[in-house]
Write a structure and sequence with these properties.
Strand content: 25-35%
Radius of gyration: 23 Å
CATH architecture of the largest domain: 3-Layer(aba) Sandwich
Strand order of the largest sheet: 14-15-16-17-19-18
Shape: globular
Helix content: 25-40%
Length: 367
Amino acid sequence: MIRTLLWDTGPGEVRAGLTEAGALTELRIMRPRRGKPLLAAGELFTARVLRKIGPNKAMVAIGGGQEGLLHPARGLNEGVLVAAEMTRAPIPEPGRWKLPQLRPAPAVTAKKEPGWHGSHDAPEAFLRREAARVSAIVCRDARSANSVRDTLAGHCPEVRIDLEAIAEADLSGLIDSAVTGEFPIGEGMLCIERTRAMTMIDIDGSGDPLTLNIAAAAEIGRLLRLLDIGGQVGIDFVTLDDRKARAAVDAALADACAALGPHKRTAMNGFGFVQLIRPRTGPSVPEMLCGTLTGRLSRESRAIALLREADRSIGRGPRRLIAPPAIIDTIRQWPDELTQLEASLGTAIELVADPAATGYGHVHVSQ
């Protein structure tokens, strides 16, 4: 199977899309921590035990004002320093963030103070890992292509510039759908909603219930992989009274989920409910985009959307970024992104806070 990596870079984030036989199968969004320790699965920290939580868990400090949950923590006293590996990054849920999870790393020597052990760059690490399983990396422009070649230092597949291929993948359209959580299926609609307990998927529509459910099963397998949705997932299919019909949906869901890797799944019960559990090491695409909000972009995502619009703008002269004050205040805290944007455009950037602006704002081009 021919695999291609779409590498769409911009100020504030990298969008990476994996295509297989021409179809987009995985979307990942990576953003810098902007001076803070990278909180990603696999990263190493020195943690200080703050307090025990039961016999085998502990709240720990990992530096930079960050805390996490250490498990197992049996025999560790308060105040002790321990080397730890992050097993799950912080997860945004509606209204709150879930703390990262860590486990002891016995082969690593703890430092004298809590803190991060690495100098890890998430996009670079992702690029190096994915380069081994694709035949080509497609970039938007020469600057991005040259950066990919430099990062991989000659150990890379074909790197080419193809703006049309990235446009055809419609990553922006997929992002819009990931935010709203609505995906059409046949004569119905599949809706994905985040809750604190689990990700809920609801299927509704007209027509034959079995046909609708089988179409939904195929789409669910595709979307869970595409949007990197893990953890507990509850699926509310249209109710089917016939056991054979329910078995047919179970089989369709099993086929669709074969590409997900390790996961557990219950059979459909008489009420049409299925529960599925996948490993979860970090935020999904919807969680990355919405943060602790539901159904709309977070402030960070709106600020990045404005920067990306400016980066794609056409014309001459300075750019005025006009947006609600909260968005402008956020961008002011990102000097690296502003410097990168000015260098890319070859002109100055002016930030204008306008309380009357809506959405993420807009870009005004001088000429």
